[in-house]
Design goal:
- The protein is of the alpha+beta class.
- Helices cover 34% and strands 27% of the residues.
- The chain has 20 helices and 37 strands.
- A six-stranded mixed beta sheet has the order 11-12-10-13-14-15, sandwiched between helices. A six-stranded antiparallel barrel has the order 17-18-24-21-20-25. A six-stranded antiparallel barrel has the order 30-31-36-33-32-37.
- A hairpin with a 3-residue loop joins strand 30 and strand 31.
- Helix 7 crosses helix 8.
- The longest helix has 76 residues.
- The N and C termini lie far apart (127 Å).
Length: 830
C-alpha cells in the first residue's frame, strides 16, 4: 500500500485557500492560512440497472459500477434513493394540501364578500324606501296646504286629486329594476377613512395570516344596530338629539371623580374636562370635596342630593306615637343615696330577697334592676344604684332613665356627700323625688335633723310645708314600707306614664358584662315598644340578634315590654353602659350603623389625643417631662364597675405623678392583658374577676404582678399608695444656728479663716451654711473646717468662739453673718 493509498494529496490546487487573522491577549495577532475543501456530490444517472454477477438482483445504479462514487455501497445508495423518493412524495402531498386550503380560503372570502354585498344592498334598499316614504309624506303635506289655500276651486281640487293619487311613485324615486342595475362600484366611492383594511394594510396579524386579508375584526351587532338607527333617523328628517335625562345625584361629603361620573351616568373624560375648566387638575381616582362636586353636577344639569355618613342612622329615627296606641306602663323607680344608708336593704325588704348577703364588703358596687308586684297588683320597676363616691356615672345613668327617684337617707347619719350628689342628679334629670328616711328603728335616729339638712339643698319635704313626699321607714323591721309603696303609686298616678308596646323596641343599657359561657350580656331596660326573641338590634358601637331574654328572676322569656328589665344575649361585643338599644329591620342596617358609630368614636378619640400643631406637641412634651406615671391595666366584671374604676384612677395624682390606665375592659384577665402589662411595666388589677390559667402562667414567667379586689375602697387605696411612692421626697430646711464673723485670718494651706462667735443655736461641721452680708445671701455651701482653738470639732454651742472656713470660697469679711442649717427629706403622700 502506497503512502497516499490511490488518493490525491491535499494541496492548494484542489482547495480554496483563505487567510484568517487570529487575535490574542495583549494586542498580539497572527495570520493563518486556511484551506476549504469542496465536498463532492454524487448524482446517479437514470437508466436500467444491470444485474450483478453472482446475484439475481438488478444493480441500483444505472451504468458502469466504476462510475459509482467512492466509498458508497449498494445498500447505502439504495437507502439514499428511497429517501429521495419519499421526500418528493411528501413535497407533492404538501403542495396538494396547500392548494386545497387556498381554495377553501378563497371560497370563504367569496362567501363573506357576497354576504356583505347582500347586506349593503338591503341597507341601500331600505334607505331608498325611507326616502320615498318621506317624499310621499312631503308631497301630501304640500297638497293639503294647497287645498286649504284655494277655497274657491273645490271641484278642481277634487278632479285633480285622482290624477295625483294615481302617481304611485315619484319620478325622483328610483325603481327596483334601477336599484338592481346600479353598478357595484358604489362602494368604491365611499370615503377611504371608512375602510378598516386600509388602516391595517401594512400590518400582518395572526388572524390575517390564518384566514386571509378579509378575516379581520368584524363589527358587533350593537354597532350595526346603532348604524341602522342613525341611518333611519337621518332618512326621517335629519339628526334627532337625545333628550337629556336629569338625575338626582346623591352627594356625600367626599367622592371620587369616577364615582361621581358613574352616579351622573356621564363619561369620566367629560367630568375630568369639566374639572380642568374650573381649574382643578384631578384624575378619575382622586377624591374631591362636596362643594366642588356640587358645581360639576349643576354644570351637567343634574340635581344634587346632599347625604352624609350619619344618614345611616335615619332608619332608627324617632316616630311620634299616636295617643290611641299608648297604654299604661309600670313606673321606673331609682333608689339613690349615700353609701351604707340602707338602699339595698330597703329594696330587699320590698322584694323579700337577700341581695345584701351576697355583696362584697356589704356595699353595692353594681347597678341592679328588679321588678316588684305589690299587693294591689301593680308592677314596679326598681333600679338599685351604688352609693360609693366612685360610682357617679352609674347614679347619673340611673337618674336619666328613671321616672321617680327615691332618696334614701339614714336617720342616724343625716345628709352626706353622695346624698347631695343624688339630689343634683335628680334635679338635672327633672324627675320627682321621694325621701325615704331609713333606719328609723335605731335609738340615735333623728328624722327631723334629716329634714332640716335637706332644706340647705332646696329639698323641702311635706312636713316642712313643701311638695316633696317623705316617708319614715325601717328596712330591718319593715316599718313604713306600705306607706313608701303608696307614695310611689300616688306619684306614678300623677305622672300618667304611658308607652306603645306595638312598635320596635327601644331601651337603655343599664349594665354590660362578658360572661364566660354566654358571651357578651347586656342588662337592658325597655323604655318603649316590645323586644322579642329573634329581633335584630344595634346598641352603641355593637349590634346583634336576640338569642335569649332573661328576666330579673333568672327565667327565660319570649318578649319584654315597656319598663321591663331583661338580660339580652346575642351581642357581637360588649356595649358601653348607658348606650341606647334600637331594633332595626335587617342585619345589614345594624352592621352599617355599628360600623359608622365605631369609626366616629375612633376619630373622636384620635382627635382628642393628638396635638394639632407643633407648638402644642412641644408644650405637651415639656409638661410631661417632669411628670411620673403609674401605668395600670384594669379588668372588671361589668362595664359600669370598669368605668367607675377608670374615673377614680383619673382623680388620683397631682402635677408630679398621675395614674395612667393603659387598658380597661370586662371579663377575665387574658394573655393579651399580661403582654400589655409586661411591655409597659404595669400591674394588672382584677375587680371581681380572675386570670385564666394561661394568663397566670405567662404572668409568672414574665414577672407581672396581678392583684385581685372585690371592694373598690381597697383598690383605690392601694393605687394611691403606689402612686405616692413615685413622688419625690420633700426637702425641708431646719435652721440650727447663727454666727457672727469678728475677724478674718489668713492661714497657710487653708486660706482665709473666719473667727466667729456663735450667737444662736449650734454650729455643726456637717451642716450647710449661708454667708449673709447686709441680710443678703452672698454664698451657700458647706464648711471646710470647724475649729475650737486648735482642735477640729464636730459642733460648737451657742456663746462660744470658733474658726470656720468655707469650701471653695474665701470672700469673707468682718461683720458678715453665717447661717447654719440642715436639710431633711419628708415622705409625701397623695
Amino acid at each position: 500500500m502506497s503512502d497516499n493509498d490511490g488518493k490525491k494529496t491535499l494541496g492548494l490546487g484542489g482547495s480554496r485557500p483563505s487567510n484568517v487573522k487570529q487575535s490574542f491577549s495583549h494586542g498580539r495577532t497572527k495570520n493563518v492560512v486556511v484551506e476549504t475543501k469542496r465536498k463532492r456530490v454524487v448524482v446517479p444517472k437514470p437508466g436500467a440497472a444491470k444485474p450483478e454477477s453472482g446475484t439475481g438482483r438488478a444493480s441500483p445504479l444505472g451504468g458502469d459500477p466504476s462510475k459509482r462514487p467512492a466509498g458508497i455501497s449498494d445498500a447505502e445508495l439504495e437507502r439514499r434513493m428511497k429517501a429521495l423518493a419519499m421526500a418528493r412524495a411528501r413535497e407533492a402531498d404538501e403542495a396538494a394540501k396547500r392548494e386545497a386550503e387556498e381554495k377553501a380560503r378563497t371560497a370563504e372570502r367569496e362567501a363573506r364578500r357576497a354576504e356583505m354585498e347582500a347586506k349593503e344592498a338591503e341597507e341601500r334598499e331600505r334607505e331608498e324606501r325611507a326616502k320615498a316614504k318621506a317624499a310621499e309624506e312631503e308631497r301630501k303635506r304640500e297638497k293639503a296646504a294647497r287645498a286649504k289655500a284655494v277655497e274657491d276651486e273645490p271641484i278642481a281640487v277634487q278632479v285633480d286629486a285622482p290624477g295625483e293619487t294615481a302617481v304611485s311613485r315619484p319620478s325622483s324615486a328610483p325603481r327596483k329594476t334601477d336599484r338592481i342595475a346600479e353598478p357595484r362600484d358604489k362602494a368604491a366611492k365611499a370615503k377611504p377613512g371608512r375602510v378598516d383594511d386600509v388602516r391595517r394594510s401594512g400590518k400582518l396579524t395572526l388572524n390575517e395570516a390564518l384566514t386571509g386579508r378579509e378575516g379581520g375584526r368584524q363589527r358587533s351587532m350593537a354597532a350595526m344596530k346603532r348604524k341602522q338607527d342613525r341611518a333611519r333617523a337621518k332618512a326621517m328628517g335629519g339628526q334627532v338629539e337625545r333628550e337629556k335625562v336629569v338625575r338626582d345625584v346623591q352627594l356625600p361629603e367626599a367622592i371620587t371623580v369616577s364615582e361621581l361620573a358613574n352616579r351622573m351616568a356621564e363619561r369620566v373624560a367629560d367630568v375630568v374636562k369639566s374639572l380642568m375648566k374650573n381649574g382643578i387638575m384631578a384624575t378619575q381616582n382622586q377624591t374631591i370635596d362636596a362643594d366642588t362636586a356640587e358645581l360639576i353636577i349643576e354644570e351637567f344639569g343634574h340635581k344634587v342630593v346632599r347625604v352624609s355618613d350619619a344618614d345611616v342612622e335615619d332608619v332608627i329615627a324617632q316616630i311620634a306615637d299616636k295617643p290611641a296606641d299608648l297604654v299604661n306602663r309600670p313606673p321606673i323607680i331609682t333608689i339613690m343615696g349615700h353609701v351604707d344608708h340602707g338602699k339595698t336593704s330597703l329594696l330587699d325588704a320590698i322584694r323579700n330577697a337577700k341581695v345584701v348577703a351576697g355583696e362584697a364588703g356589704g356595699i353595692t358596687q353594681h347597678i341592679g334592676a328588679y321588678q316588684v308586684k305589690t299587693d294591689s297588683g301593680a308592677m314596679l320597676t326598681f333600679l338599685d344604684t351604688p352609693g360609693h363616691a366612685a360610682f357617679t356615672s352609674m347614679r347619673s345613668r340611673g337618674a336619666q332613665v328613671t321616672d321617680i327617684v327615691v332618696l334614701v337617707v339614714a336617720a342616724d347619719d343625716a345628709v352626706m356627700p353622695q346624698t347631695i350628689e343624688a339630689i343634683n342628679h335628680a334635679k338635672a334629670a327633672k324627675v320627682p323625688m321621694i325621701v325615704a328616711i331609713n333606719k328609723i328603728d335605731k335609738p340615735a335616729a333623728n328624722p327631723d335633723k334629716v329634714r332640716t339638712d335637706l332644706l340647705m339643698h332646696e329639698v323641702v319635704v311635706e312636713k316642712m310645708s313643701g311638695d316633696v313626699q317623705d316617708v319614715e321607714v325601717s328596712a330591718m323591721t319593715g316599718q313604713g314600707l306600705d306607706n313608701l309603696l303608696e307614695a310611689i303609686a300616688l306619684q306614678a298616678e300623677i305622672l300618667e306614664l304611658k308607652a306603645n308596646p306595638d312598635r320596635a323596641a327601644q331601651g337603655a343599657v343599664i349594665e354590660a358584662q362578658l360572661d364566660v359561657g354566654r358571651g357578651p350580656v347586656a342588662t337592658v331596660l325597655i323604655q318603649n315598644g316590645t323586644l322579642h326573641q329573634g329581633d335584630i338590634f344595634v346598641v352603641g358601637e355593637q349590634y346583634g340578634k336576640v338569642r335569649a331574654l332573661i328576666n330579673d328572676k333568672g327565667e327565660r322569656v319570649k318578649e319584654a315590654g315597656p319598663a321591663v328589665p331583661v338580660e339580652v344575649l346575642g351581642l357581637h361585643g360588649t356595649p358601653e353602659a348607658g348606650d341606647v338599644l334600637n331594633v332595626v329591620e335587617t342585619e345589614a342596617q345594624a352592621r352599617e350603623i355599628a360600623e359608622y358609630r365605631e369609626k366616629a368614636a375612633k376619630e373622636k378619640r384620635a382627635a382628642a389625643g393628638a396635638a394639632t400643631t407643633l407648638e402644642q406637641l412641644m408644650a405637651n412634651a415639656k409638661e410631661n417631662e417632669n411628670v411620673s406615671e403609674l401605668p395600670i391595666v384594669v379588668k372588671a366584671d361589668v362595664q359600669g364597675s370598669a368605668e367607675a374604676i377608670v374615673q377614680a384612677m383619673e382623680k388620683i395624682g397631682n402635677e408630679e405623678v398621675r395614674v395612667r390606665v393603659l387598658h380597661s375592659g370586662v371579663g377575665a384577665i387574658t394573655e393579651s392583658d399580661i403582654g400589655l402589662a409586661e411591655a409597659s411595666g404595669a400591674p394588672v388589677f382584677g375587680f371581681n374577676v380572675r386570670a385564666n390559667a394561661p394568663a397566670r402562667q405567662t404572668a409568672n414567667q414574665k414577672g407581672v404582678e396581678i392583684r385581685y379586689y372585690s371592694v373598690i375602697y381597697d383598690l383605690v387605696d392601694d393605687v394611691k399608695k403606689a402612686a405616692s411612692g413615685l413622688l419625690s421626697a420633700e426637702i425641708r430646711e431646719k435652721f440650727i444656728g447663727y454666727a457672727n464673723i469678728k475677724e478674718v485670718f489668713k492661714v497657710s494651706n487653708v486660706g482665709k479663716v473666719a473667727g466667729c462667735l456663735v450667737t444662736e443655736g449650734v454650729a455643726r461641721r456637717s451642716a450647710g451654711v449661708r454667708l449673709l452680708r447686709d441680710n443678703v445671701v452672698i454664698h451657700e455651701g458647706t464648711l471646710k473646717t470647724l475649729k475650737r482653738f486648735k482642735d477640729e470639732v464636730a459642733e460648737v454651742q451657742s456663746g462660744q468662739e470658733c474658726g470656720m472656713a468655707f469650701e471653695n470660697y474665701d470672700d469673707v469679711r468682718p461683720g458678715d453673718v453665717i447661717e447654719i442649717f440642715e436639710r431633711e427629706e419628708v415622705e409625701r403622700n397623695l
